[in-house]
Amino acid sequence: MLKGKTIVIGVSGGIAVYKVCDVVSRLKKLNATVHVIMTEAATEFVAPLTFQSLSQQPVVVDMFEKVEKWDIEHIALAKAADIFLVAPATANIIGKMANGIADDMLSTTVMATKAPVLVAPAMNTNMYDNPIVQKNIKSLKEFGYQFIEPESGRLACGDMGKGKLADVDTIIQAINRELIKDQPMKGLKVLITAGPTREPLDPVRYLTNHSSGKMGYAIAEAAVLKGAEVTLISGPVTLREPTGLKDFVQIQTAEEMFSIVKENLSEQDIIIKSAAVADYRPRYYRDNKIKKSDEDLELQLNRNPDILKWIGMHKEDHQIIVGFAAETNDVMENGIKKLKAKQTDLIVINDITKAGAGFKSDTNKVTLVHKDGNEKSYPLMPKKDLAHIILENIIDIRKDG
Ligand code: PMT
Fold this sequence. Notes:
The chain contains 13 helices and 21 strands.
């Protein structure tokens, strides 16, 4: 959803400037165009060159500096913005914005923009609580400016209280939410499977895998944000149920997952199978705990249904099927084999031997391969960001018919 979007970030001077470097880098990975405007004070904390390297665009500080690319710089940037983010926003810039003072590049540009403006304050807690600052925030809110609330905690000055810049995740989610107000998946029914399955052996033991559900839950949250009606079928995980789901079904075994998928399949437009389903289950379930003896114990396993393969064979023409492949060797070759064997429209291939990719981590590193052979590899990024990229690929598949 950030592809083709322009985010202008106004950076004012505070210790939290360094966190905004991460915001810029995350937005770039999501394919947004990012322009940074800094106040003079901000350049005392981080050099403009850092933002220039991260955004791959010139950084503007001085109002009268000529940047060839734009006609009248502040107006050009003000018009180019799909979203204008001010982060960190000091009491000073908030005061200027609330009172119509435009005396540098950032304050003039933000005043000239018609894009939605998101403001992420960061300052000392006493400053933040000061009634003058609160009055300015209230007045900006009344004008339609949106605030990304600062967090409470230990501040750089040593004081405790509210005033820390919101974390990078929260800022990225706020941008995402703003950009998808037009809800590109509105009216679409999406079924997502997430987490592991648990195949019981006796009342105290089971076979399972390391899936935490983070990838699937991130996709479910992103799809809800995009307006989809989401059914999430989840194996046992410790994550909280995402808000805004149409249905949330918790299962334990692959067979239970299979039966819920079959029940729900016909009404879905999109099916995304990010769950790590056990391929085998113990042949016999023992009602009583298996007692140990001095002998070795041999387990016999039965093949579980391949749910994705079954979906591929039974899908209707309009349905889009997305599979995942968790691979440790011959990653691309094995992933593409699964795309074909399971007749998916798209496969998300993760090399689970790579640091930060695959099971349990908050990040993932994947290659997306489409049915037509088109493939793209993405850098390591938070699963929450990757979720949006996967959904954008699905939206493109729908557009291309
Ligand atoms: O949950 P996290 O900790 O965030 O980790 C994310 C993840 C690594 C689990 C996820 O990114 C992922 O790769 N999920 C698929 C894992 C997997 O089981 O891959 P596979 O290569 O074994 O299966 C291929 C596809 O067939 C998958 O879409 C799987 O859901 C499906 N499958 C597999 C076996 C089976 N019996 N039925 C299935 O439907």
